[in-house]
Amino acid sequence: FAIKGVSWFGAEGAGAVVDGLWERPLEEYIALLASLNFNALRIPLSVDNVMLNPHIGEFFLTANQQLKGLRSLDVLQRLVAVAAKHGLLVLLDMHRLNSRVWPDERGLWYDASTSAIGERLRSAWRVLLRLFCDAWNVMGADLLNEPHGATWGTGDAKRDWDLAATSLGNMVLGECPRWLIFVEGIGRGEVVSGTSCELCFWGENFLGLGRRRVELIVDGRVVYSPHAYGPGTNSRMHYFNRSAFPDFPDNMPAVWEAHFLEPARLAGATVVVGEWGGVYEGADELWQDRFKSWLLEHGLSSFYWALNPNSGDTGGLLQSDWRTPHVEKQALLSELPSTPALLSLASLPPFKCPARASGVREHEASEAFFRCGGATPLCIHAEQACNGVHECADGSDERHAACKAIGRGEPPCITLGGQDALSPCVLPFQYRGERFSACAMDDA
Q1: For 356-372, how does the pLDDT look when each residue is reduced to its tens digit (9 = 90+)?
Q2: Which candidate in 12, 146, 184, 391 is catalytic?
Q3: Are 382 and 369 spatial neighbours (Cβ–Cβ below 8 Å)?
Q4: Crossing angle of helices 72-85/26-35, nearest 10°?
Q5: 168 and 184 Cβ atoms separated by less than 8 Å
Q6: Does 249 sit behind a cis peptide bond, omega within 30 degrees of 0 on the bond before it?
Q7: pLDDT tens digits, residue range 106-141?
Q8: Could you tell me whether strands 378-381 and 369-371 are parallel, antiparallel, or unpaired per DSSP bridges?
Q9: Catalytic residue at 146?
Q10: Which phi-psi region, left, alpha or beta, contains residue 16 (left: φ > 0; alpha: ψ -120 to 50)?
Q11: Candidates 12, 184, 204, 275; catalytic one
């Protein structure tokens, strides 16, 4: 599954909501990302905003009158629902402990005012779990952004991020075992096996994996998520010096592989780059071009930083008016692969209807769920209804009445098996010597 993602920040700050809603409707941004073939959003949050759930100031919602009067988490729920409608996954990212403190000088998962280490962070994740575990397109938890002050694998419970991430990740999986657990690297660190990370970017350092891995209660859920930036963000890294490294940026793959890719692969884990980006000018343009090529060479997924134009040291996919595209950046990212999330959702089997679907009657749909027929209340996600695949045993999810109930036309024509399973049919097509100009069931 190839993730082509982008971060949309703002909800981690004093406004407690994604930026740009003063310029355009929320759905316009998500529809734009879908049109650019993005299939995932990373939404930065903060512990205090999650716990306090403040009302959003009217200024932040000028172009979204229907959201006025709502609280922070209400808007986040609307965002997740709109993203689901457009087939975008959502990664929740706990970006800050305090919405008004950045950068956090301590760089740990707790602050000086906390007596129970990490408990506020755990409480915030419990709130998000209750709200979003049932949302099919919320893919997981990015446990904490850039714990640059932490250590890894030393045995110090107050500073080792691997121990804290293991404990926190297991708590999340205990309540929502389907989520992926994104674990970022630390900041600077000592020399490990001859490799130094003295000049690692925050979140980039995974050298400690050689000492201890993050092992969770559910197999296959941990994702190591490094952050990497070029000279447009911080030019002091020695490997950006074109006098010392005249082959720049071709010297960079060895750096990325040493800092995070090789340690993660030796640990047998998945790698998804959680942040990369920059101004895309001069040496930084060279760096980003090479990083994009390297991602493709290694088949790595990533989240670009950011949609927002108001990131001071990187800019974004949009210009300062929030409408004009940054054409060069969008062209840069156009080559990255993106697996359609809605097609991947197709064929997931029905599940016991959750409490939120208690009012949904047989063969009817709510915003989130469709209830199949039968004595036992079984549901599928609303996006699975009228998708061309019979997930309900009685086939009710693909009947005309079901499509009409959720405001869709006829079910699409989908290839159900073979090497192109769950891909849209291209009409007309030839199969076993016959020509088909309309959707038809020929065999299993």
Answers
A1: 888 999 999 988 899 99
A2: 146
A3: yes
A4: 30
A5: no
A6: yes
A7: 999 998 876 568 999 999 999 999 999 989 999 999
A8: antiparallel
A9: yes
A10: left
A11: 275
